[in-house]
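Re: export button greyed out
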Amino acid sequence: GAVVSQHPSRVICKSGTSVKIECRSLDFQATTMFWYRQFPKQSLMLMATSNEGSKATYEQGVEKDKFLINHASLTLSTLTVTSAHPEDSSFYICSARGQKYTEAFFGQGTRLTVV
Amino acid sequence: LAKTTQPISMDSYEGQEVNITCSHNNIATNDYITWYQQFPSQGPRFIIQGYKTKVTNEVASLFIPADRKSSTLSLPRVSLSDTAVYYCLVGASGGSYIPTFGRGTSLIVHP
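Workaround output, generated via the alternate export path:
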C-alpha cells in the first residue's frame, strides 16, 4: 500500500502558541486529505477534508480559524493549531486518498500536549 | 453514509481464528467495505477491502454475503501482536468518499 508520513509524532507546546503538523503522501498524489482527532478510548473524529488547491471543508463544531488547514500540493497538507489551549491536547491523524487507490491511507499520528 | 455496527470488544487466545462481524444494513450499491487496524498511539493501518463474496490477502480474509448487509473479518491464528482496535468502514471509492469511523472492536488476544 501507499505511505503517508506525518510529522512530528509528538509535540509539547505552551498554551497560547501555535503548532504545525505536516502530512505527506510519499509515493502517490493525494487528491484529497483528511484530518482527524482522537481522544483516549474513543474513535477517530473527522475534523476537515481538503482537496489540493481548495479551501478545506470543516465538520460542524470545528473552528476553522483555530485549526488552519493548507493543502498546497498533491503531496502535502498541513494542520496548524493556533493559540493552542490544554483542551486542544489530543491525538491528531491525517489521511490521504489518491485516484489510483480505492482506500485511504493514514499517517502515524501526532500526539499534541498543550501545557 | 452507511452506518456500521460492530461488537465493542472481543477476547481470544493465541493461535485461534478470530472473526469480527460488522453490520451495514444501509450499504449502497457502489459502496466498498474496508477494514483498518489501529494500535495505541498509531494511525489506522489498512487491512483489507472488498465489495462482494470473499477477499483474502496475506493477513486476513473478508467474507461478504450476497446481500452485503454485513461483513466478517477473519484473522487466522492470532498472536499477541494482533491486540488492537479494528474498524469497519463502508463507502464508495469515488472522489466523494470520506472515511468515517464508528466505534470499532477492541480485540484482546491472551497468551
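Strands of chain B lie at 9-13, 18-23, 31-38, 45-50, 53-56, 61-64, 70-75, 84-92, 105-110. The button fix ships in the next patch.
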